């Protein structure tokens, strides 16, 4: 049986809804900031609060604080969501064209396998994006020079080549 004695939010803002649900499970919310823990003979003995009060404990769970390593993405101007993480679509595309993000920088719940999967999805999307960029560039290049090799262009090139190779360039081509 788990003994639910207390929750030390230690600066985390809890909503009224969260407080109601926590208390409904018999958990006391201790609002005072935590200064440290008291360990004696290699065992946890208490949680020490900032006001000096010691709250006896034999076990303690410390939740991780997820902080994304997104300085570059934030400086570039990628949108950051209310949770503090870079916002992306399902392929990892950010709010900036040509920029993707994957793993824990975009999803705080992503464990290693999930982060690797999102990296793979982003890589596939990036490959598609780069291919599309190449196709668009080729279409634009072709549009600016006309048809690259049309029958009319082939005839004109052939006429020029044949004329250059004749002994009398003024003679009509047949």
TrEMBL record:
Residues 13-116 form the FAD/NAD(P)-binding domain. The keyword Repeat does not apply. This is Thioredoxin reductase. Pfam families: Pyr_redox_2. InterPro entries: FAD/NAD-bd_sf (IPR036188), FAD/NAD-binding_dom (IPR023753). Transmembrane segments: none annotated. One of its GO terms (molecular function) is thioredoxin-disulfide reductase (NADPH) activity. It comes from Nocardia cyriacigeorgica. It comes from the Bacteria. Gene3D superfamilies: FAD/NAD(P)-binding domain (3.50.50.60). Keywords: Oxidoreductase. The keyword Metal-binding does not apply. Its EC number is 1.8.1.9.
């Amino acid at each position: 049986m788990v003994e639910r004695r207390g929750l030390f939010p230690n600066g985390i803002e809890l909503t009224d809804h969260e407080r109601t649900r926590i208390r409904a499970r018999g958990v006391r919310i201790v609002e005072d900031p935590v200064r440290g823990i008291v360990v004696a003979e290699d065992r946890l003995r208490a949680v020490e609060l900032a006001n000096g009060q010691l709250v006896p404990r034999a076990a303690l769970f410390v939740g991780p604080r997820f902080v994304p390593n997104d300085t570059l993405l934030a400086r570039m101007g990628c949108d950051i969501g209310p949770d503090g993480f870079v916002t992306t679509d399902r392929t990892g595309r950010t709010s900036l064209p040509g920029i993707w993000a994957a793993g824990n920088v975009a999803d705080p719940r992503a464990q290693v396998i999930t982060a690797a999967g999102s990296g793979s999805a982003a890589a596939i999307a990036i490959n598609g994006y780069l291919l599309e960029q190449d196709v668009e560039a080729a279409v634009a290049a072709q549009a600016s020079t006309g048809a690259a090799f049309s029958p009319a262009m082939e005839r004109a090139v052939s006429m020029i080549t044949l004329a250059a190779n004749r002994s009398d360039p003024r003679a009509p081509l047949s």
